[in-house]
Amino acid sequence: MAQKDVKNRIASVKNIQKITRAMEMVAAARLRRAEQRIAHLRPYAGAIRRMTRQAAQAAENIPNLPILVEHEEERIVALLLVTGDRGLAGAFNSQIIRAGVRAAAEHEAAGRQVVFYASGRRGVSSLTFRGSEPIGRYVGFTDRPGYANAREIAEDLMAAYVDGKVDRVEIFYNGYISPLTQEVRRETLLPLQQATILEGPNGEGAENGEEPAHAALVEYEPDPEQILRRLIPDYVEISVFRALLESTASEHGARMTAMRNASENAGEIIQDLTLEMNRARQAEITQEIMEVVAGAEALG
């Protein structure tokens, strides 16, 4: 490769490195805000869950709400895939798509029909490309989801369940552990009898950091049945909102890590190209010296 070509390539890689470093810093700033939102949500989500569980234990009869009616047969399963609106985040989006597709194959092998809901443009476009058009599309807010976005998704899922259009709802999202680590989580949202909402104090799926609920003498006004009617939709909404926030933090963490790796790789490429350029320059100088020496000998 000519010396000029190497110089041009070094300049190009340096420009890319500037962009990846800027994207890394932006992702880091957004990650800190996302971590704060998760920290603020967890106590509220834990309180809603404890209140709902205690009210269910205190109620003489679980209210005959359509959302609480468990369907006799699971014929249609809805899978909600929570992805991002943008890429450049490593395997963040692709691992959710793969997990959802594997789960769909499992359900179809068991004789169940699968319908998809997708949050994030990447999930919508990937499912559409695979021929699995999502019946619910939610885009444009993954960088900073609001509670209204979670309510919209939860209402659509609850309406589909109550109307008998789906018999089960599962949600897939990236759970945030650290900027370097995100894990794919698969949770059952509906029916509530199979979710964690009505389990005992030591049931599986307890919130991280949530202390076991202890039996307490509580007087309910109005009665526990009426309270459950109000709490259960809130629980579904807050569960979706938590998944959106966890996914957002995971996306920023994954993008920060991916951009850092890209910057480091660009630095290594620049070093290799610089070494190659220096070798080419040295070869040119050596060639010129040899030509001068040869010319001098010819004249002598």
Radius of gyration: 28 Å
What percentage of the residues does DSSP assign to strands (E)?
A: 5-15%
| Number of discrete helical segments | 5
- Can you tell me the CATH class? Alpha Beta
Report the major sheet.
5 strands, mixed
Range of helix content: 55-70%
The CATH architecture would be 3-Layer(aba) Sandwich
Number of strands: 5
In the predicted model, the low-confidence regions spanning at least 5 consecutive residues are 197-215
Distance between the termini: 36 Å
Query: CATH H level: which superfamily?
Result: ATP synthase, F1 complex, gamma subunit
Order of helices and strands: HEHEHEHEEH
Please indicate the count of domains: 1
The average pLDDT score comes to: 86
CATH fold-level label: Pyruvate Kinase, Chain: A, domain 1
Based on helices, strands and strand pairing, what is the structural class?
alpha/beta
Spatial arrangement of strands, main beta sheet: 3-2-1-4-5
Shape: elongated
Structure write-up:
This protein is of the alpha/beta class and 300 residues long. It has one domain: ATP synthase, F1 complex, gamma subunit (Pyruvate Kinase, Chain: A, domain 1, 3-Layer(aba) Sandwich), CATH 3.40.1380.10. Helix content is 58%, strand content 13%. The protein contains five helices and five strands; from the N terminus they run αβαβαβαββα. It has a five-stranded mixed β-sheet, sandwiched between helices. β4 (168-178) and β5 form a beta hairpin. α1 (3-58) packs antiparallel against α5 (224-299) and α4 (147-162) crosses α5 (224-299). The chain is elongated.
